[in-house]
Amino acid sequence: FNYNEKYRPLYHFTPQYGWMNDPNGMVYLDGVFHLFYQYNPYGARWGNMHWGHTVSKDLVNWEYKPYVLVPDKLGAIFSGSAVIDHENTAGFGKGAMVAIFTSAGERQTQSIAYSLDGGKTFTKYEGNPVLTDANIIDFRDPKVFWHAPSKQWVMSLATTQTITFYGSKNLKEWTRLSEFGEGLGGHGGVWECPDLFPLTYEGKTKWVLFVSINPGGPNGGSATQYFIGNFDGKTFTPDTMSYPLWLDYGRDNYAGVTWSNVPATDGRRLFIGWMSNWDYANETPTQNFRSAMTVARVLRLVHNGEHLVVASEPVKELESLRREAVLLGDKTRTNTSDAITFENFLPNNQGAYELTFTVTPNETDSFSFALENAKGETIKYLFDGANKTLSVDRSKSSVAFNANFAETLIKAPMVAKKSYTVRLLVDKSSTELFVNNGEVVQTNAVFPSEVYNTLRFNTSKGTLTLNNVTVYKLK
Ligand code: FRU
Predict the structure, then answer these.
(1) Which tens digit of pLDDT belongs to each residue from 151-189?
(2) Which pTM does this prediction carry?
(3) The three-state (H, E, C) secondary structure of 277-289, written as one string
(4) Which residues are catalytic?
(5) Ligand 1 within 6 A of 459 CB?
């Protein structure tokens, strides 16, 4: 394992060797956050799916663990979730960690396995599979939680282009509760990796349903849509809104779901996503590994001025990585023919840093900022208040490796504001943009041939006021 490997992120989780896709089985137990993941230990392309395993006490520093689930006669181990069985409903033991996952053989079926040693090793249940369907081919990615009011486990399962909910008293026998999604939301591809969970807004509980979809994302390929509504233990009823809504309009945040069993004293809804896109995931220009996770994020329901959205922001623990804060200052651009340029903005720039600033456009509602390197590679962020969009142009950001990677202008809807607070996390092969505390999010991979070290702001009219432009080197 070599941190100097080209494009090996410095502060995002990557497998030491091999291929990784979806985060799986995220669960908290006794001070430890577990993250399992779709893993091929034999090569850096998709195949032979196992569950890899890593743990963290702070959601920032991850320790590698041996993989826990390997393919068997029922098939490869596809995506799924994990719960802590506090009441021993399944009979595996009080407080057992139970993984619920898809066995992907000739048919896709749901299986379970339990761990009595805090997630180190798992035993597959001898009665597997626990859920089958003779008719549904795409039948996968079970996400399970305990629904206290109806005293049952509830499973959300991707069933072609709908989500089917099942209920169980013991994690072994499942009955169908309802089905959601026909005619609503994005249907440009197959539905995958659902997650159903509550969030509070102004003291009231709302239920949020995540559905990843591939292809059919707002900017091509795979992406995660969501619905906001109510769940009564049987049926999910969406609020009337203009669907689809997308968690992240960037190209590289897929199959993300949330942690289970997070203590009430923490109270956060914690999320991590796979920072790639099925459009090109198998061809990214890394060598010993493929794909990274996003940073861990907190989800909240907020009102963006037009409607409710699920906002996401990095967990506060990430700030522990900040080193060498450089205050680039406050600036107002007065002459419209000049850009505001910060050259060589970070001494010893190793490609891992965080930029924060507030930008206020005056007499204009469109402006841009860009990261650039000496090779002329650049990623550009275009704020267009008139058209209510925030677009990312990464067409010249990276070495060439796949036509799908470079061709689109990556657009997000944005409600125009007087000022924007901007937070941009950059690592050796990724950019994560959070505007106005995560109201608008764009996560996009980049593969520049050298680090970006110039920051440049532009507007075609009016002036821009920049406040507290700060860059932190990240450890
Ligand atoms: C999503 C997905 C899941 C599946 C897994 C297989 O990226 O296609 O639906 O379980 O990947 O690796």
Answers:
(1) 999 999 999 999 999 999 999 999 999 999 999 999 999
(2) 0.98
(3) CCCCHHHCCCCCE
(4) 22
(5) no
